[in-house]
Amino acid sequence: MKIAVGCDPNAEAYKQEMMDFIKSLGHEVTDFGSDDVIYAHVAIRVAEAVAAKEYDRGILFCGTGIGVMLAANKVKGAYAANINNVYSAQRACLSNNCNIITLGSQVTGDMLGKELIEAYLDCNYVYNERSGKKVDAIVDYEQQHAV
Prior knowledge:
By secondary structure, the chain is an alpha/beta fold. It is 46% helix and 16% strand.
């Protein structure tokens, strides 16, 4: 898969370690940077690229993962989830068809971060009776109300 990643300056070292890990799993990684202290800028660039299907998925990092999640979710077609356990990482993909995950470099240890990323990247969303209609409702609302 082609993975877009980005972060704020505080998460640069964490992002670099996670990028090396993602590459070790056999994925292609593009770094959207970390120099801008306004983390929303990089989060939006990653989200736009993922929503445009230039990348299969995105992974964003900041101190908690919350700020970059909020920014990414403002982009039409971007569906970001802040994850902190393996089950949520899997369900972000399997139940919610999220195309971006966010992690907090100050609250998620290195080993857990790697487990979360691997769990997320190992999943593929398949439309199904249980989750499909829920995802459809989110997308339909966005189509009707997004600017």
